[in-house]
Each structure stands twice: as structure tokens, then as C-alpha cells.
Write a structure and sequence with these properties.
Layout lengths: L16 E9 L3 H11 L4 H12 L5 E2 L16 E2 L2 H21 L6 E10 L3 E6 L5 E6 L2 E9 L1
Antiparallel strand pairs: 1-7, 2-3, 4-7, 5-6
């Protein structure tokens, strides 16, 4: 069996950065892409506040790329509330913050310098139907990585 190579897509100075990764998370790849694009470059506290508001359905995530048939929200264009995706990103930000504290960095001065959402493995299955037929059932997963650095 061939073991896949697990690594980050970019490398930064390890003394000034902290990173965290989640593999094969069962969330929508499209929502993960949009959330990652939205929080990139934000301060850690800003990103956490935004994601908590998305989970509470107070603030929508703007849909820039995957916006076909998406309803418009007040004060912005097309947007959605990807609650499951936002909660997974919250867990990952908390993990990255813990890694920063362990390294002796100050999380209040940290900013998200890199965030990436890549498609993971697709789990194939079948959904039995009437009269001996079957429909394919696919479950998608996503690999997420976050790197935070002091500003």
C-alpha cells in the first residue's frame, strides 16, 4: 500500500508562524473554498467572531465563485450561511491558536497568512431504489490547512 504524502502547500518561517491541518473533513468543498477565501488575511479574533456569527446565522459568507442560484443577502450580493463548514474552521483556528501559544507566540497579534481548502477523498456508495435499481451516493471530504503568523 502506498502511503500518501501529507504536507502543507506552502512553508513560512517556523519561528514566527503556527499551523494546523484537518484532513478528510466531511464538509462541502465549495463552502470550504468560500469560507477560506473570506477569512484569509483577517486577524485571528476577527475571523473567530465572523465564523461564530455565521454559525448563529447572523452574518452570511459572500459567495464569489460558486454563486449560481444563490439568493442575495442584505448589504451584499449572493451569500449563504455554511454552518457546518464554519464550525469546522472554528475548530481549526482554535487548534492553530493553541499551537501558537505552545510555541510562545502572542495570539492577539496573529493574522491568518495562509488558508487552503482542497478536495479530499470521495467515498462512493449506493442508495437502493425501487424495482431493483440503485442511485449513486457520494460523500465528499475536504483537507483544510491554516497558517497564522505574527504581524
Amino acid at each position: 500500500m502506498k502511503v500518501p504524502k501529507v504536507g502543507y502547500t506552502v512553508e513560512f518561517e517556523p519561528e514566527k508562524t503556527a499551523k494546523a491541518m484537518a484532513r478528510e473533513v466531511r464538509i462541502s468543498p465549495k463552502h470550504a473554498y468560500e469560507v477560506a477565501k473570506t477569512i484569509k488575511g483577517m486577524k485571528l479574533e476577527e475571523a473567530r467572531k465572523l465564523l461564530e456569527d455565521v454559525v448563529d446565522k447572523k452574518v452570511p459568507i459572500p459567495m464569489k465563485r460558486y454563486k449560481r442560484d444563490v439568493g442575495h443577502r442584505k448589504g451584499m450580493g449572493p451569500g449563504r450561511f455554511p454552518v457546518k463548514c464554519a464550525s469546522e474552521f472554528l475548530k481549526l483556528l482554535k487548534n492553530a491558536e493553541s499551537n501558537a501559544k505552545y510555541k510562545g507566540l502572542n495570539p492577539e497579534k496573529m493574522r491568518i497568512i495562509h488558508v487552503c481548502a482542497k478536495e479530499g477523498r470521495t467515498i462512493y456508495g449506493i442508495f437502493p431504489r425501487a424495482r431493483g435499481r440503485a442511485t449513486p451516493k457520494r460523500r465528499e471530504s475536504v483537507h483544510i490547512e491554516v497558517i497564522i503568523g505574527e504581524v
